[in-house]
């Protein structure tokens, strides 16, 4: 059960963050703040205590707090983010997490973004991507193995992070894009495969028994309805313009 979350208020320059989604238009700060507040409300509505960290004006992507740490009951691992523009963000989360957990770190030459890390029960899938290298994956895997977790590296050939394409929606079910549907690493799971024109919705967030999914993806919503869980929809338009999704905006623990 998650009882806590950490988020960070987006900074006024958030639209200067890294993005490949320029075709979606310029991101709007006022609307981003409204959508971010709705995200925080949704987490609190599900009973989580949410720490809202102040905006970090030197790092326009710093509200994507998921990328700078991986948190389990036993430890919080501060990552070594793979994009040079974002690497300094790792120091901005240390004091917020030190209140709750013993800290460990991913060290260079290892790089790792939390967006590449998917935990399903006690097993970690660790995407090896443009941001996370094999050494970063190995370091995280070994830290987690020392706490009784297992792990598998997964090459991320498509999308920014592994969780841009694959997410756990409870039980034995993963929500995946077509690119990942026949990956041997996820054999044995029941797969819900999102339509090509709804790939963004594969980044759906499981909080205890509730799924938070982005608004505007009716075919994915219908598949999720079949799982019989509580579902909350949130408008993620401004986060999406900056290549982010629902999981990126928080650390849950
Ligand atoms: C970046 O490119 O790093 C940010 N603009 C988006 C990060 C999204 N984070 C995530 O998927 N975990």
From TrEMBL:
Which positions are catalytic residues? 161 (proton donor), 248 (nucleophile)
Q: Tell me the domain of life.
A: Bacteria
Keyword terms: Hydrolase
Listed EC numbers? 3.5.3.18
**SUPFAM superfamilies, alphabetized:** Pentein
Record keywords: Hydrolase included?
yes
In the record, biological process GO terms are: arginine metabolic process; citrulline metabolic process; positive regulation of nitric oxide biosynthetic process
**Is Cell membrane given among the entry's keywords?**
no
Give GO terms: molecular function aspect only: amino acid binding; dimethylargininase activity
Fetch the PANTHER family from UniProt. Answer: DIMETHYLARGININASE (PTHR12737:SF9), DIMETHYLARGININE DIMETHYLAMINOHYDROLASE (PTHR12737)
Give the similarity note.
Belongs to the DDAH family.
Identification of the protein by name = Dimethylargininase
Q: Which organism is it from?
A: Desulfobaculum xiamenense
- Kindly list the organism's lineage: Bacteria, Pseudomonadati, Thermodesulfobacteriota, Desulfovibrionia, Desulfovibrionales
């Amino acid at each position: 059960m998650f009882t806590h979350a950490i988020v960070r208020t987006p900074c006024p320059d958030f639209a200067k963050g890294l993005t490949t989604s320029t075709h979606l238009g310029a991101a709007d700060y006022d609307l981003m703040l409204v959508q971010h507040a709705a995200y925080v409300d949704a987490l609190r509505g599900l009973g989580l205590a949410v720490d809202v960290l102040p905006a970090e004006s030197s790092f326009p992507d710093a509200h994507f707090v998921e990328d700078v740490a991986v948190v389990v009951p036993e430890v919080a691992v501060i990552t070594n983010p793979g994009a040079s523009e974002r690497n300094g963000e790792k120091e901005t989360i240390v004091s917020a997490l030190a209140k709750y957990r013993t800290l460990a770190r991913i060290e260079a030459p290892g790089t790792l973004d939390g967006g590449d890390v998917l935990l399903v029960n006690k097993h970690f899938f660790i995407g090896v991507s443009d941001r996370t290298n094999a050494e970063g994956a190995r370091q995280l895997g070994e830290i987690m193995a020392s706490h009784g977790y297992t792990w598998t590296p997964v090459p991320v050939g498509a999308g920014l992070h592994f969780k841009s394409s694959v997410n756990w929606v409870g039980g034995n079910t993963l929500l995946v894009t077509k690119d990942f549907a026949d990956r041997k690493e996820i054999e044995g799971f029941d797969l819900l495969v999102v339509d090509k024109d709804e790939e963004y919705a594969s980044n759906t967030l499981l909080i205890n028994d509730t799924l938070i999914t982005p608004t505007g993806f009716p075919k994915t919503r219908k598949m999720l309805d079949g799982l019989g869980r509580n579902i909350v929809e949130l408008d993620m338009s401004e986060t999406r313009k900056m290549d982010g999704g629902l999981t990126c905006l928080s650390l849950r623990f």
